């Protein structure tokens, strides 16, 4: 049976990753429109949804998270269930829409899946989405495993319609990327509700917004009352000496280390079922709160006047683990500490992530490093050029920040040339308004658009510049040069970053141009959508003078050979890893890097 | 507070038998995920609850990948606590060493491929005699630190079968001797997980790993790859100091040495004459001497070495 067929079978028990389970739950709930911008750890949700037939649902990669949420809102207001998915920082981008839509409500089910990244495995921060839910006044459900991910997502649509509110389902890296078995159900598509047709509700002019706000507050109270009796709130009676309020994957860690403890598992972190929490607190001698990241539950429970203890024992930073929960319970005097591990005296070797062998970004940053510019960077694979050996990026704030940052740097009269570097997907996500700003305000900056024809960092997703949709169908392709010219950039060049000399020369010209200049670096990613592998090069050992020039590329195919020259390591190329981009040969002063046959 | 910690702890202790914990580690692209999936499926065929959790955020870009697989009658946490892994499978030597402390002391089983994937980071210090910053422990040393250990050149075994990438399946074969599942179940799982064209080789690789492990279990002297030490070459070169003589009168400020110095330690001064801006970074590689069109640079190296002095 192929995978798709397996996913169709109701009543089956399937091993699913958290993200696949969320997709399954949405599909079962009859979702008709799904939109997302990729971002670890949320990316697989839309990829999984897109594996269901196009006749079941419409699914798109949106240009950014705000667009994704707006698409879902439009669909929900038109009467069908809709979902938008993003990583935690994506909600910052989409927050403007969320804050207003919270006033408007939902009409048909409107679910927003947000995946947090405690521990910062692959992000720029570890913000806690539960705070956002509180801010926007929308409920946030917190599944703890794949089964709940499926069930809670399905339920989120019901809640959204019953209470006329957007609902957030919050996942975390751990949940999104853990596989466990899920009993799946049928797909039930509710009939379309038709367009909402209530301008007093869907047009947020001040007069309407003033009427909608009190409704939002009343909705919060109704939701809180519903959570009092909902199965989402689960009181597991146990040892009465201490009780733990918890949710999300933190619940699993508590069960792992203290399976007999009294537990109040909250399926929703906001709004809270106050009566149940009070009754639970009264039933135990000590009240603990175990939650990952911010003390959201703890603060709210303390505000009820209850003596909750939490962050005094459990960290506010990073990801929780059974070890940390055990250590916290031990610090609280409720358990014995785990025996200290016996150190084996092995120092772990550093293995930071690197750009792939033959990555097109390498040539662009190698040339840029020679320019000695002030470089505002952005987010993508190329952020790795911020560290040695390429070390040619000064700042990385968040997606789309580079060009605006560069305008600001140039405005201070910075002596060095000011350059912004931005990936193709990032440019389309949020790089165009700042480019217009730069042109409009006549900033003296150079923008390098790194067009590798894919969203690489997140695993190779299509975008409006790749000519393919999420479902792999042909699509119109953005022309970056035309965009730049259309917004008023008159100096635009397209360069192949595999030609380091040409790239360097072009950058030299670009920085002396007064005003905004744009260099488009064009070369496909070697990993996605197809793995590119050319004929590998080799180092003729007798010619290598061990100068280490080639090692400045940071190419993982280059390592030290056993031989030495003048006491320094000669270099060799791992033929299996080398893709033959020739960058190393271009920088070698002794011409000893040659095609395999010649070396 | 009325809680008696001891009593609370007794009441909190679980009754179900503990879950089996296996960690699979390696670097991006090595097939950590395939092994984890196979283990999860094996757990399922034995009628157990299974959780499999991985971190693969930056995996593609040569970073560290690790996966936790837990199975048992009741499995809560998706992750394995430090010191509680029953087995550790490492697809790369230094990665095995990185996670070795996650094994249960005394009883944990350590299974590692001795193949090295040297990251560019390990070749960072480039002076005379600089050592490669790769893990130094040899298989014999590592095996002394664990309850039961197997360190083999799985990549060589897999290459011998015609597919180096089947090294992960060789290691799975080694693991299989310390687990209860019957061989037929393992082969069925591999059959379901591997693509048609590499299926036969993967089944062979599994059997080869299992055969190697059965022999090694009976004869501990076979448990490590004895050829390993020869393959680890560390430079043992003399201590050398470097100085640069730059003839200011001959330098015309062309910038060539500045741009091409691999250590980026040269600069032009206010008079547009090259100078050694960061002497501590200079490795004495002579690139500047060779490339200067006006012969303005001479590199002088002095050897201080007890053995040669
Ligand atoms: C607001 C926001 N959304 C999503 C992400 C996740 N993310 C990080 S980099 C990236 C895409 C980078 O693509 P591109 O700019 O084309 O660079 P590449 O990785 O291809 O080099 C994404 C989606 C993020 N960090 N912030
Ligand atoms: S995935 Fe593509 S863009 Fe990213 S490092 Fe590899 S080659 Fe470069
Ligand atoms: S040609 Fe050189 S730089 Fe390019 S992938 Fe091969 S070893 Fe790396
Ligand atoms: S650049 Fe050429 S000479 Fe220098 S270390 Fe590399 S291969 Fe050897
Ligand atoms: S010898 Fe010259 S090129 Fe080499 S590191 Fe020293 S200054 Fe740079």
Question: What would you say this structure looks like, in words?
Answer:
The complex is a heterodimer of chains A (599) and B (309). Chain A is an alpha/beta fold. Chain A has four domains: 3-229, Rossmann fold; 233-331, Rossmann fold (3-Layer(aba) Sandwich), CATH 3.40.50.920; 360-522, Thiamin diphosphate (ThDP)-binding fold, Pyr/PP domains (Rossmann fold, 3-Layer(aba) Sandwich), CATH 3.40.50; 537-595, Alpha-Beta Plaits (2-Layer Sandwich). In chain A, helix 7 (146-163) links the parallel strand 6 (140-141) and strand 7. In chain A, helix 2 runs parallel beside helix 7 (146-163), helix 11 (248-257) crosses helix 14 (322-331) and helix 15 packs across helix 20 (500-512). Chain A is globular. Residues 1-7 of chain A have low confidence and may be disordered. By secondary structure, chain B is an alpha/beta fold. Chain B folds into two domains: 8-230, Pyruvate-ferredoxin oxidoreductase, PFOR, domain III (Pyruvate-ferredoxin Oxidoreductase, domain 3), CATH 3.40.920.10; 239-303, Alpha-Beta Plaits (2-Layer Sandwich). Chain B has helices at residues 5-12, 32-45, 93-99, 139-144, 154-160, 167-176, 183-193, 196-218, 228-231, 256-260, 287-291, and strands at residues 20-27, 49-55, 64-72, 87-90, 109-113, 148-152, 239-246, 266-268, 274-276, 297-304. Chain B has a six-stranded mixed β-sheet, sandwiched between helices. The longest helix of chain B has 23 residues, at 196-218. Chain B is elongated and about 80 Å long. Classes of the chains: A alpha/beta (599), B alpha/beta (309). Chains A and B meet through helix 8, strand 8, strand 10, helix 11 and helix 14 of A and helix 1, helix 2, strand 2, helix 3 and helix 11 of B. One iron/sulfur cluster binds at residues 244, 261-263, 265-266, 276, 282-288, 299 of chain B.
